[in-house]
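Exercise 3.2. Students should predict the tertiary structure of the chain below and write it as structure tokens, then compare their answer with the key that follows.

Predict this chain's 3D structure.
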Amino acid sequence: MKEFFGTIGMIVFAALIIFGISYGGYQMYAFFAPRYRAVDNQVFKQSEQYNDGMVRDLENLQMEYVKANDEQKGAMKAIILHRFSVYPEEKLPANLRNFYDQLRNGQ
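Answer key:
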């Protein structure tokens, strides 16, 4: 009888150990995952593809704004200002920086 309860106790103890390890792994993931994501995001935003793509998109918006009539320009202005606001101004080429300044100043 003693062996039976000893075996049951070992099984319960092993199950608790397995559960504890699993739960600890989940807690570590929950703690470190946001930090990994933040580093991945930072690396992505510093990548050449991201910067080239953003500059190309902003240049396309500038070209569409220049081609648009006055009614369309009014509608596009808020969208363009928002797109420019998510990209660091110091990384903008001079022509886009001037365009952004003109839009912000209402010209």
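Discussion points: Helices lie at 2-45, 48-67, 70-85, 94-104. The chain has two domains: 1-46, 48-104.
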